[in-house]
């Protein structure tokens, strides 16, 4: 039987790609009927920014201004999409130009390595040495995609914060959900997280106890990420963690968080509301799709 922690790691490293590929297959089937599958890169939403609460498209200026006023900015990504990481750097640079330093928290570093990251930073480490100190999973996360973000923290003098739950803590929660110190999740939150996990494993549902443990580990990750945001901050994390209705924002003051999701366009879906509602994110920033194989084939 597969190690529960391996399954949990797959959520972090592969869930976004799996969900994106599944959505694409469904959308392509519909688009093929309309003879428009060839227009993915010419999608009408590509490059546009949707203000979910105002139900209106906006330019970058109001987005950057609102972000500069927020205590916490969460940048939700699909992990393997280079355009998402390029735009994250654009947002970081805009925030640096509009205000003082923030801390840069990253899901890709486990919090147990924070002391080593701080020591390396104090000794003048470069981005590569910081990745080594923080035990960055270079293959799993795709280090070249994240290096510019770590480099930004170095160049701008922003603290770099390891935001994720450690592997040991995650393993314990998957094995025994009763170890969770969080209040029970609302049924809607638990149900949504269960669906995320099942979808992220190509529709194969783990047995009930393991699924419950994976939900608690996912909630604990969100809570841990929220707990490290002790001052003005930016969090780099998967788009699921950025959701206001079931991610990190649940563990922060609602009026202090701005959630921005970078969203891949899909053929046959031309309305922003087709991708997410106002309860999910504050802004949707639409991008082309990353090239990837179907992980469920």
Question: What descriptive keywords fit this protein?
Answer:
alpha/beta, 297 residues, Rossmann fold, eight-stranded mixed sheet, single chain
Description:
- It is a single chain.
- This protein has 297 residues and is of the alpha/beta class.
- It has helices at 4-33, 60-69, 82-98, 114-122, 127-133, 138-141, 143-156, 167-175, 187-200, 208-227, 239-242; strands spanning 49-51, 56-58, 72-77, 103-110, 160-164, 233-238, 257-264, 283-287.
- It has one domain (4-287): Rossmann fold (3-Layer(aba) Sandwich).
- It has eleven helices and eight strands.
- An eight-stranded mixed β-sheet has the order 2-1-8-7-3-6-4-5, with helices on both faces.
- Helix 2 crosses helix 3 (82-98).
Average per-residue pLDDT, rounded, comes to 89
Largest sheet: 8 strands, mixed
Oligomer state of the chains in this structure:
single chain
Q: Which CATH class is shown?
A: Alpha Beta
How does CATH name the architecture?
3-Layer(aba) Sandwich
Distance between the termini: 21 Å
Number of strands: 8
H and E order = HEEHEHEHHHHEHHHEHEE
Layout of SSEs?
Elements: H1 4-33, E1 49-51, E2 56-58, H2 60-69, E3 72-77, H3 82-98, E4 103-110, H4 114-122, H5 127-133, H6 138-141, H7 143-156, E5 160-164, H8 167-175, H9 187-200, H10 208-227, E6 233-238, H11 239-242, E7 257-264, E8 283-287
Parallel strand pairs: 3-6, 3-7, 4-5, 4-6, 7-8
Antiparallel strand pairs: 1-2, 1-8
